Amino acid sequence: MGWSRRLLSVSFATLLLLLPFHEKVSATSRDHVIPMGHSIGIQMDLSGVYITNDVLVQEDYWLKAGDSIIKMEGIPVVNLRDFEKVVGKAKKDRIHMNINRKGTPIEILADRDAVKRLLPFLKDRTEGTGTLTYVDPNSGTYGALGHQIVDSSLKSPPSFKKGAIYLSEIEQIKKSIPGTPGYKISSIIDGEDYLGTIKTNGVYGIFGNWNAAYKKVLSEPLEIMQPTELKTGAAEIFTTVKGTEVETFSIRITHIEEEQFQFILTDPVLLEATGGILQGMSGSPVIQNGKFVGAITHMFVDEPKKGAGLFLVTMRDGEGK
């Protein structure tokens, strides 16, 4: 893509660095969606129990990070409760385990005491934070982040059976400095009051069905900008840096390519509060001349005032995939 400086995707729980893009994606002039900018907590129930670290379980045999436990003593293991039940009832010195390692089935007899010590290295859920990009009032769907969630311990996009996004509150900001990305410290306001379900964790973001009962965060729709309409110069972003309040901050578009654009933060209030782009800002809407351009997706690690964005027409192409 012609960029030599280090880029970091700015979602809290991801490791993805650079994104592929589809070509010749366009929206009709009648397409309007609601720009958001709210901080969200993301929860995804994994499709099984996964190992997060390499762990020795039998003499010289190691379970590897990313392995999933399928069965123990012939009993299916779907979540951590299943794991704890089997271990709690185990009487033998060895526990028979069926493991899936990158699609390859493996059977082992693991030391019972070693298996008991596995619990801190297991997970059946992945969590993170990011920014809600848009809600489509016509289709009842939403999009967020602008890039894929890659679980930081599994080092891969997690296989999940269900998930949801929740409104979160920013409690504290750790500022970005050159070479060290800052981040938001936030918490979900109400774990029972979800904004939407997660259907897709794709290259261009997470997508799903919006909770129609949740109307209090919605505003007026904006027309989606065609990539050819974007100009270098003044623009703005919608994002949250304190509490749950979505604020508008100024940026300057500095470079435009066919599928993406670069920008620099210019708002003195935002720069004073954050030092630059933060992890967790991924998905923040970008607006120019009253039209919805796209979403923040990446920051330049060594120059945190600078970032990159994804056009909304490209992001929405991933909604149905």
Which descriptors apply to this entry?
321 residues; mainly beta; Thrombin, subunit H; Pdz3 Domain; 2 domains; 15-stranded mixed beta sheet; 6-stranded antiparallel beta barrel; 4 helices; 24 strands; 9% helix; elongated; disordered N terminus
Q: Strand portion, in percent?
A: over 45%
Distance between the termini: 24 Å
The helical percent reads: under 10%
Shape category: elongated
**CATH topological fold name of the largest domain:** Thrombin, subunit H
Q: Summarize the biggest pleated sheet.
A: 15 strands, mixed
CATH structural class of the largest domain:
Mainly Beta
How many individual β-strands?
24
Model regions low in confidence, pLDDT < 50 over at least 5 residues:
1-5, 11-30
Radius of gyration, in angstroms, nearest whole number: 22 Å
Briefly note the structural class of the backbone: mainly beta
**What's the order of the H and E elements?**
EEEEEEEHEEHEEEEEEEEEEEHEEEEH
The number of helical elements comes to 4
Mean pLDDT: 87
The CATH architecture of the largest domain comes to Beta Barrel
Q: In a nutshell, what does this entry contain?
A:
The chain has 321 residues and is mainly beta. The chain has helices spanning 80-89, 112-116, 268-274, 312-317; strands spanning 7-9, 32-35, 39-51, 55-58, 61-63, 68-72, 75-76, 94-101, 104-111, 122-136, 141-144, 160-174, 182-188, 194-197, 200-202, 205-209, 222-223, 233-242, 245-256, 260-265, 278-279, 285-288, 291-300, 303-311.
